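ok trying again, last paste got cut off:
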Amino acid sequence: MYGKLIIKAFIVLSVAWTVHGAVTCTAAGRFADPADSTCKNYTLCVLVTANTSYIGYNYVCPTTSLFNPTTARCTTTYTCNGTTTNTTTTNTTSSAVCTTDGFVADPSSTNCSSYIQCVQINGTFLETTLTCPTGSFYNPNTTLCEVNYVCAFTCTAAGRFANSADTTCQTYYLCVLTTTGTYSQYEYTCPTTSVFSPTTRLCTTSYTCPTASG
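nice, full thing came through this time. structure:
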């Protein structure tokens, strides 16, 4: 089914994925690898073509956590084949991003291309940054990477940032840090035939918009 796909693999903070899913995907979501007796492996199924085609990406839960097929999350409270992982909690600390086991948006990502996997280990959250497969974006409502999701931009730093939802590459956001410590967000459009370059963060005629040329 995926014979024509190029096999890709990378490791991000002890988490790996490949384009050949261990699970035959029939729906979007995260599913346990039925052949994995350690309960650490799972497959992320991404909808590619509306209601017709899915691609599976294999992941491994970090460190001592296991994949719970009921909650579709990596956790240290799940029992695999009668073996319970270490669930001792002492002096539970709060993370800057994670508040519970699961998946949350990456606050440093301006185009929704990455997200964070949260696993609580001995009272402290391990935060693992994951990258969505090429062409898909993290939807915080479903906690899945989706091809058709439109990323809602929010300023997290001062500067100019590309509007990832604009296929013409002509619009961008200007983020200004206010005296109250928050950011003011403004949307601008590059003049005439110029486009916004995410590398130089300027409007230019020398940049080729990948979506416009694609």
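cool. The helical segments are 210-213. The chain has a mean pLDDT of 80.
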